[in-house]
């Protein structure tokens, strides 16, 4: 799902 990809990308940004 695209939402999953978005969440994953946002997760990386939040971790940084």
Automatic annotation (TrEMBL):
Is Plastid found in the keyword set? yes
Going by the entry's taxonomy, the superkingdom of the source organism is recorded as Eukaryota
Keywords recorded for this protein, A-Z? Chloroplast, Plastid
Report the protein name in the record: ATP synthase beta chain
Organism this protein belongs to: Alsophila loheri
Classification lineage: Eukaryota, Viridiplantae, Streptophyta, Embryophyta, Tracheophyta
């Amino acid at each position: 799902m695209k939402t999953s990809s978005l969440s994953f990308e946002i997760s990386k940004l939040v971790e940084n």
